[in-house]
Design goal:
The chain has 10 helices and 12 strands. The chain is an alpha+beta fold and about 300 residues long. The strands form 4 sheets. Strands 1-7-4-3-2 form a 5-stranded mixed sheet, with helices on one face. A 3-stranded antiparallel sheet has the order 8-10-9. The longest helix is centred in the middle third of the chain and has 17 residues. The N and C termini lie far apart (about 120 Å).
Length: about 300
């Protein structure tokens, strides 16, 4: 059997350990993704492939690989995966209605599109499980051996806000450079938190991304061509937890966008003909001018 060499980049702490591969749903898309778990340390690593095939190659020592792609194993907070699984299991038909479920029965009930063994291993990590239930859920014990849980939206939003608070050396370089770029005091903290909210929202489902962005006066603007962009209210019109489309800044942005679209829209032949005729015609009031008074 031929063994194909690949390049994998992993954190130093896990580079010499045996990792178990799991297939878990991505928190944002719910599609199965490749994860690796260090069961002893309860560390979850997400495998992200950087595709460079046909554009570069690897050369090191006495070996070479024509495919220059690489797989990067990056640590991820297991609570993001728990949030995706529990949201899917406990959300009712309404946007804000949640129902209690037996988390142990999720191993048997909710494997549509999931890998049963991977979910079992993931749920068996005791520290991650206890932290997820405490941080994200309402927990109710119905018997000595049965515990039911449901999402607590207020707890989830509070946890996501803590993820967005700038703190020391944990800031990504892009956010750190933003804070050093001129904003001071509260404005700097606000700008940093909004940048962090944008980063965190990329790893959330649409429901939770919308809730998080609203906490910082942001909302998703569905632009033309199917493209989406996040728009934030200006500091003077910002209200925590509210993404208002009626603020002066947002109204001005919408008006400018509408004017630009009208200017860019080409005129039809009929519109050009009517415009040309209007220039040649006289105003109706010109036919009713007052006669000069007799001397």
């Amino acid at each position: 059997m031929e063994c194909k060499r690949k390049v994998v980049l992993a954190p130093r702490q896990q580079s010499g350990k045996a990792l178990q591969q799991l297939r878990l749903p991505n928190p944002r898309t719910s599609e199965l993704g490749s994860y690796y778990v260090d069961v002893e340390a309860e560390t979850i690593l997400e495998a992200v492939r950087v595709d460079m095939k046909g554009r570069r190659s690897w050369l090191a020592g006495d070996w070479a690989i024509s495919d220059g792609s690489a797989t990067v194993l990056s640590a991820v907070d297991p609570l993001f995966v728990y949030l995706g699984l529990l949201t899917r299991a406990t959300m009712s038909s309404g946007d804000s209605e949640w129902r209690f479920v037996d988390i142990d029965n999720m191993l048997l009930e909710s494997h549509a599109g999931m890998d049963a063994e991977s979910v079992r291993v993931f749920f068996s990590l005791p520290t991650a499980r206890a932290r997820a239930l405490e941080t994200l859920c309402v927990v109710r014990r119905v018997s000595s051996d049965t515990v039911v849980v449901k999402i607590d939206a207020d707890k989830v939003v509070a946890w996501l806000r803590r993820k967005c608070e700038p703190s020391g050396d944990l800031l990504p370089p892009a956010v750190a450079s933003l804070l050093a770029g001129g904003a001071v005091g509260g404005q700097a903290a606000g700008a940093g938190a909004r940048e962090m909210a944008l980063l965190v929202s990329e790893y959330l489902s649409e429901y939770w991304a919308t809730r998080l962005l609203a906490e910082y006066g942001g909302s998703v603007d569905n632009g033309g061509g199917g493209e989406k962009a996040v728009v934030f209210d200006a500091p003077e019109s910002y209200v925590q937890g509210v993404a208002s489309s009626k603020t002066p800044v947002r109204q001005q942005q919408q008006q400018q966008k509408q004017q630009q679209q009208q200017q860019e829209k080409p005129k039809t032949a009929k519109e050009k003909q009517l415009e040309k005729a209007a220039k040649k015609s006289k105003s109706i009031t010109s036919f009713f001018q007052k006669k000069a008074a007799a001397p």
